[in-house]
Design goal:
It contains five helices and seven strands, in the order H-H-E-E-E-E-E-H-E-H-E-H. It is α+β, with helices and mostly antiparallel strands. Helix 2 runs antiparallel to helix 5 (226-272).
């Protein structure tokens, strides 16, 4: 059988099966890497405050490094750009966020840099949230930047989160329900001239009248994706089967040749057997 397996025909078939098995192995490794990647413990020092510009880049989606990181940024709130976001749970209680438009001043620049959406705080009712927003809004006639130095510091610190997707029922009954940067940019009175960060900041210290928004530490629990592991095992079985299939085909071909050889030998023996005749006198 192994002499038959070393023939050019079956060597070529073996190479083909090995190539198919290698493809299955690569797919299995990819599935396994996805399961392990999702199970990796987040070892970032998210509670150590770092400059926003060191972990996030304007006009790009958030990276894993930036999501959930405590950051600080210097800036000024832009007048007229306060938005109330509904259906926001805080300690299990539904309420409202007050979102603001922050013109940042990274690296101590004298002129504004990228814009940033900021969640100032939480209120139990829309009326209370709107009252705080109105109180923060001096609406100066000569400037679009609110003079809030007595109520909010120029240095803002909080947790930087990934933008939410716009909700299908946004703006129904005049209420917005998702903290979507894309939606907020379209609502800001002042146009974005220097780019915008892809996430938003939840302040550690809200203005008077608002509660601190719950922003828990990013989970460090290890969770395996068992579906990916099952797929990885499945691809490994396919790879083994590809090689086994070659072995089975070679063995079947050898058994057929053996049967044909035995039949040929049997037929030759019958032809060569001498005929005897009985003569009766």
């Amino acid at each position: 059988m192994w002499q038959l397996a070393r023939s050019p025909k079956w060597i070529a078939a073996l190479l083909l099966c090995l190539a198919i098995a290698a493809g299955f192995a690569v797919l299995g490794q990819w599935q396994l890497s996805r399961a392990v990647e999702r199970a990796t413990v987040d070892g970032r020092q998210t509670e150590k405050t770092v400059p926003l510009e060191s972990v996030a880049t304007p006009n790009t989606t958030n990276t894993t490094e930036a999501a959930g990181q405590k950051v600080s940024v210097a800036g000024q709130l832009v007048a007229g750009d306060y938005v109330i976001i509904g259906e926001r749970l805080n300690g299990g209680q539904p309420g409202y966020w007050v979102m603001a438009h922050l013109a940042t001043y990274p690296d101590a620049r004298p002129s504004p840099g990228p814009d940033l959406a900021v969640a100032l705080g939480w209120a139990p009712t829309k009326k209370a949230a709107q009252a705080v927003a109105d109180g923060l809004e001096p609406r100066p006639s000569s400037s679009t930047v609110s003079d809030l130095s007595l109520q909010l510091p120029d240095d803002y610190t909080g947790r930087y989160l990934t933008t939410e997707a716009p909700s299908d029922d946004d703006f129904e009954n005049g209420e917005q329900k998702a903290a979507s940067v894309a939606a907020l940019v379209n609502q800001w009175a002042e146009p974005v001239a220097n780019g915008v960060y892809g996430g938003f900041l939840i302040l550690d210290t809200p203005p008077a009248g608002l509660d601190v928004i719950d922003s828990p530490v990013p989970s460090t629990e290890v969770t395996l994706n068992w579906l990916n592991i099952f797929y990885a095992i499945e691809w490994a079985v396919f790879a083994v089967f590809a090689v086994f299939l070659w072995f089975r085909l070679v063995k079947d071909a050898w058994e057929r040749e053996e049967e044909e050889r035995e039949e040929a030998e049997s037929a030759a023996a019958v032809v060569a057997e001498p005929h005897t005749a009985t003569h009766v006198n």
